[in-house]
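Q: what sequence does this backbone want?
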């Protein structure tokens, strides 16, 4: 049974991690596309219209691969997590259905109008189609985050005699105190990724002395969007999320901060350290006293409860994984703020386009913006363990007992091979668009 649960979780972790590489870009990029189209309507400079269509083509490829990789996850609810689906379908079925019926069709319909209908519908409707694509992507994020928020902090439900959960108030799914900070944090992080991608393409053009005018526009736009969004990811949305974890999942908070023993005063924030589950401590620790207490409670002397305060059976099942995911996310996020800040200073001083080490840094660090998003999700999902629905449904009770671990492993290997080919196809298609450049857009 434990092997079956392990492979079920491994398969879902792999498929959702690969899938999320695509919506994380579309959600952020849709906002930047709206900006470029607005810029065109305001200035009447054709280059901005070409830029908007250039990025919408990349958006379209990204969206298509995202749809293909998202479908298997829906099936896994029935094949690998049948008991979970049976027990929670009366709640999360509502938001998942709305995501498919409303936001997906909104996106897919108006992508076509934006890409192929400009001359037919005119510039104002063309701009409206960009806005509707943006709304579709962000509505999709809202419905998915509402589903996840209910799993993290279940509200507005009734438990039936057979143990299944049903909604007692639909509006409570969207007034869940977990939802707003998590949604804003997630969406802003998507803008960080899109900003990095836009900046990286611009840096690539400048370093290769190709499409220089467009490269400068991409770099300038990317670093401005990037600095604003990366700061918002940290504060207020990241801070707000952390306070929610402290309030509703204090065991998770202790694990992700590496607090094994309660710190009665001067709660320290750990900069470097490796969890040692044998000694229940952090090895090679480098910490700053009082900072964690201040960030959490706005007081340097407030107590920080450790894992020792809670039964071990309630601890996250992978404390080291949660700890490292959280610190990778925070560390990279801090690095991004610093890099974008330097880039903005150089932009202001009119030296950014000639400063190669910054352009190289923006180019090389671009893939790591995906890493921060994926590790952010790992923090949320590893932190919720050992529960599928926090405090209500254990992960061990949500699987499909009739699906063997061998079948799950076999299909997982199939997904690995298939997704490798899909990833390669994506890189080839997007690479061709980038190498042709925005000037080729008609």
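A:
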């Amino acid at each position: 049974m434990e092997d079956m649960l392990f492979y079920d979780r491994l398969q879902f972790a792999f498929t959702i991690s690969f899938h999320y590489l695509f919506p994380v870009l579309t959600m952020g990029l849709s906002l930047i596309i709206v900006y470029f189209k607005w810029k065109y309507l305001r200035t009447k400079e054709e280059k901005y219209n070409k830029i908007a269509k250039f990025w919408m083509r990349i958006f379209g490829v990204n969206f298509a691969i995202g749809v293909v990789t998202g479908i298997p996850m829906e099936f896994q609810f029935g094949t690998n997590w049948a008991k979970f689906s049976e027990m929670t379908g009366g709640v999360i079925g509502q938001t998942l259905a709305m995501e498919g019926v409303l936001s997906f069709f909104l996106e897919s319909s108006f992508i076509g109008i934006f890409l192929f209908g400009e001359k037919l519908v005119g510039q104002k409707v063309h701009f409206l189609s960009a806005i509707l694509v943006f709304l579709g992507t962000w509505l999709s994020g809202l419905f998915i985050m509402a589903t996840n928020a209910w799993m993290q902090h279940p509200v507005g439900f009734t438990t039936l005699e057979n143990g299944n959960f049903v909604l007692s108030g639909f509006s409570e799914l969207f007034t869940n105190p977990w939802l707003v900070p998590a949604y804003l944090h997630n969406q802003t992080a998507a803008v960080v990724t899109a900003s990095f991608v836009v900046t990286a393409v611009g840096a690539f053009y400048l370093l290769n002395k190709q499409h220089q005018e467009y490269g400068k526009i991409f770099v300038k736009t990317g670093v401005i969007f990037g600095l604003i969004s990366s700061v918002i990811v940290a504060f207020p949305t990241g801070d707000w999320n952390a306070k929610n974890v402290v309030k509703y999942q204090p065991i998770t908070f202790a694990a992700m901060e590496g607090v094994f023993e309660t710190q009665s005063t001067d709660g320290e924030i750990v900069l470097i350290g490796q969890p040692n589950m044998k000694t229940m401590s952090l090895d090679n620790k480098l910490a700053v006293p009082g900072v964690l207490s201040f960030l959490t409670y706005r007081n340097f002397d407030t107590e920080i409860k450790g894992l020792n305060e809670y039964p071990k059976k309630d601890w996250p099942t992978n404390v080291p994984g949660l700890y490292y995911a959280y610190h990778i996310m925070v560390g990279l996020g801090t690095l991004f703020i610093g890099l974008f800040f330097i880039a903005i200073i150089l932009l202001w001083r009119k030296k950014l386009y000639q400063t190669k080490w910054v352009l190289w840094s923006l180019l090389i660090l671009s893939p790591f913006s995906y890493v921060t998003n994926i590790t952010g999700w790992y923090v949320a999902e590893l932190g919720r363990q050992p529960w599928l629905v926090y405090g209500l449904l254990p992960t061990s009770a949500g699987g499909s007992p009739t699906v063997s671990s061998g079948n799950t492993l076999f299909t997982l290997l199939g997904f690995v091979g298939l997704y490798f080919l899909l990833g390669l196809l994506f890189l080839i298609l997007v690479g061709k668009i980038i190498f042709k450049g925005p000037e080729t857009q008609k």
